[in-house]
């Protein structure tokens, strides 16, 4: 089993990475970081350039857990909320982690009413426990 973290290039993802690392260490298991890209064919090089692996490594060092085993998984999704949600849920179903850690950001009341969110979709539809890490104000 493992602990999975849904990763994005926002500050809430850094918090989720840190908490995911702590949870994996506490449970004595590996950490799997899931990052959704629009297309694996075009975006693998860009994703690496964006420093996903570097961000993960930095987050692990910041938690004093640099020796934690970690795997970064890129999954093809899209840019729409529903596409990202489906891609993450598919990866979670395949990996079967014991816990999924996600970051959440604050949204305006208008955004909440009309747009929905990846975090909301994951919380409602995931088949595993979900830990939500919210950035402070």
TrEMBL record:
**Superkingdom assignment:** Bacteria
Q: Which residues form the UspA domain?
A: 4-134
Annotated InterPro entries: Rossmann-like_a/b/a_fold, Universal_stress_UspA, UspA
> Which CDD domains does the UniProt record give?
USP-like
A Pfam cross-reference name: Usp
**Which family, according to the similarity comment?**
Belongs to the universal stress protein A family.
Per its UniProt record, what PANTHER family does this chain match?
A: STRESS RESPONSE PROTEIN NHAX (PTHR46268), UNIVERSAL STRESS PROTEIN UP12 (PTHR46268:SF6)
Q: What name does the UniProt record give this protein?
A: Universal stress protein family protein
Lineage per the UniProt record? Bacteria, Bacillati, Actinomycetota, Actinomycetes, Micrococcales
């Amino acid at each position: 089993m493992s602990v999975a973290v849904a990763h994005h290039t926002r500050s809430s993802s850094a918090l989720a990475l840190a908490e995911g690392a702590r949870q994996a260490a506490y449970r004595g298991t590996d950490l799997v970081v899931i990052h959704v890209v629009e297309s694996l064919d075009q975006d693998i090089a860009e994703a690496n350039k964006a420093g996903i692996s570097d961000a993960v490594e930095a987050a692990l060092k910041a938690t004093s857990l640099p020796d934690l085993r970690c795997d970064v998984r890129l999954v093809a999704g899209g840019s729409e909320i529903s596409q990202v949600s489906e891609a993450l849920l598919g990866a979670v179903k395949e990996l079967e982690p014991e816990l999924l850690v996600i970051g959440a950001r604050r949204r305006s009341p208008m955004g909440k009413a009309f747009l929905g969110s990846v975090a909301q979709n994951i919380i409602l539809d995931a088949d595993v426990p979900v830990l939500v890490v919210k950035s402070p104000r």
